Amino acid sequence: MFTVGAGVGGAVLLGAPGSASAAPELWSRPGTVGAPGVAGLHLQFGADASREVVVSWHTTAPVSRPRVLLGSPAGGLGLTVPADTTTYRDARSGTEVRVHHARLGSLRPDTEYVYAAVHDGAPPELGTVRTAPRGRAPFRFTSFGDQGTPTLGKQVNGTWVNDNLGSPAAGDVTAAVEAAAPLFHLVNGDLCYANLATDRVRTWSDWFNNNTRSARYRPWMPAAGNHENELGNGPIGYGAYQTYFSVPDSGADPELRGLWYAFTAGSVRVISLNNDDVAYQDGGNSYVHGYSGGAQRRWLEAELAASRSNPDIDWIVVCMHQVVVSTVDKANGADLGIRENWVPLFDRYGVDLVVCGHEHHYERSHPIRGQQPNDTRTPMPVDTRTDVVDTSRGTVHMVIGGGGTSVPSNHLFFSPARCRVITGVGAPDPNTGKRAPIYVLEDAPWSAVRDPDHSYGFAAFDVDPGKPGGTTSISVTYYAVSDPYGTATPVDHFTLTRPRGAR
């Protein structure tokens, strides 16, 4: 592979033994008091996951020449790619955070790369990444939402406590995802709950420090949840989230950049949405319902139409936070705003799979297509088989909200299954400013599988491209995680199937 070692005069030399293709880079070793280190190293895919990767890290002090050295396991590090720096100032603490993004383009599909992230005066942080296959090929991705951090954020009466709804399980589930070795991981919103924390910047740092042990090796692709809404950070509260991640460009206005996006891996098109735009629930630090003025919906419809008409795309997977379905009591509930705005589009363009968080448990729906003509627009199941599901007939919704939060909801299931649907909100409370949800209770004919026994876990999706003229499938397994070593126990297994494209 590559070498990292001491060079002449206390410097550090990166290069490949015997490689003449590119001169190695030399930089000074930092002293006892030097530049800040490379913190929170993580990856994101570009719009074409077979050719584009972004390497990102953050500091709270300015640094010189942030850059990534890129190479191959056999050839070592040779190419230097400069990083662009974006910033935000946390409105609560006044701390300015600098996030450095190096965009690696023109990569080879389905290829392993090695890299080192570095800036002047700091030791390098190393990682690897594999680009997605181009065209139809097998691969795995994983998903969970609602994580928090396994760290303690403030003192109460002299005792340290976690103040962002995290728990030790937030570390356990990361270990389990890394053991599963997916090509990429989808984070279904509510990443670190910084908006609840005493120190929002430290909470983001703790989240990245926990997850860099996976996210430096495979892209963690996020959707913004309601707890990414931090009052004062950017025009609508997502300034921290928008700065930490450099996701594919959707053409949104600058203040909305990164809140919705899409990328292609193999024959799978992944679409990430921000549901606070359409959800009725008041769940963040500020009420931003309708913030895009319909821009996100227009983009989504165009994106779905293009994806479904693309002969190279078999699967459309939507990653978002708030849910269309849920059968627990005393939690958040399903949201009518999403049923009104997104579900008709999912039906019209044949979305195969929706992964969510928000509710802190695991459950999945039967394939649904169409809605009952009632006040809650109850989704209608098209089949009740639970082992093999034809998604060309309907969309499967999965709630995967057991990423580590300290307030799981798996013990709150209605029996028999029912659903509380938020149909609107009341007037703001004069003391808190929050708008209380208005609930309507409905039957849940769409409910397929629920897990009342396990609080934490993730789902793995293994894509099988199939053969021309036949079907393609995704084998889905939900794993419970219950120890600090990330031991994963299968709880639910089923297969999604649909006709394969003609090519």
TrEMBL record:
<dbReference type="InterPro" id="IPR015914">
    <property type="entry name" value="PAPs_N"/>
</dbReference>
<dbReference type="GO" id="GO:0046872">
    <property type="term" value="F:metal ion binding"/>
</dbReference>
<feature type="signal peptide">
    <location>
        <begin position="1"/>
        <end position="22"/>
    </location>
</feature>
<dbReference type="InterPro" id="IPR029052">
    <property type="entry name" value="Metallo-depent_PP-like"/>
</dbReference>
<feature type="domain" description="Calcineurin-like phosphoesterase">
    <location>
        <begin position="181"/>
        <end position="362"/>
    </location>
</feature>
<dbReference type="Pfam" id="PF16656">
    <property type="entry name" value="Pur_ac_phosph_N"/>
</dbReference>
<protein>
    <recommendedName>
        <fullName>Metallophosphoesterase</fullName>
    </recommendedName>
</protein>
<dbReference type="GO" id="GO:0003993">
    <property type="term" value="F:acid phosphatase activity"/>
</dbReference>
<dbReference type="InterPro" id="IPR008963">
    <property type="entry name" value="Purple_acid_Pase-like_N"/>
</dbReference>
<dbReference type="Pfam" id="PF00149">
    <property type="entry name" value="Metallophos"/>
</dbReference>
<dbReference type="InterPro" id="IPR039331">
    <property type="entry name" value="PAPs-like"/>
</dbReference>
<dbReference type="InterPro" id="IPR004843">
    <property type="entry name" value="Calcineurin-like_PHP"/>
</dbReference>
<feature type="domain" description="Purple acid phosphatase N-terminal">
    <location>
        <begin position="40"/>
        <end position="121"/>
    </location>
</feature>
<keyword id="KW-0732">Signal</keyword>
